[in-house]
# Entry
Amino acid sequence: QVQLVESGGGLVQAGGSLRLSCAASGRTFSNYAMGWFRQAPGKEHEFVAGISRSGAVTNIADSVKGRFTISRDNAKNTVYLQMNSLKPEDTAVYYCAGHQSGVYNYVSTSRADFGSWGQGTQVTVSS
# Structure
């Protein structure tokens, strides 16, 4: 499996922005569709955004649509999550995840399909 390391989390005021990065190593990054999930205290993991191997297809959860965008740079083995207009309810640990895909323009939204996970980065949004 690919190894994933997230960075960019922190404390931000409501309405602010953060950009999360996830650096991959160990396997061919372009063979993996990538996603971001989050887990708030006492809640289940929630799909946030996903991007296909090519970068041409993205899925964004309704709860963050219009505020968050996902992108990837296959030359840098990195996937990003740009988070704007942050709200206190966005507070969570954010996880980067990857799943191998034989389909170039597909990304799953199901946690069960993702076999590689980072350690998570905390995002806290104050009101």
Remarks:
- The chain is about 0% helix and 50% strand.
- The two ends are 38 Å apart (CA to CA).
- Residues 40 and 92 are 4 Å apart (CA to CA).
- The chain has a mean pLDDT of 96.
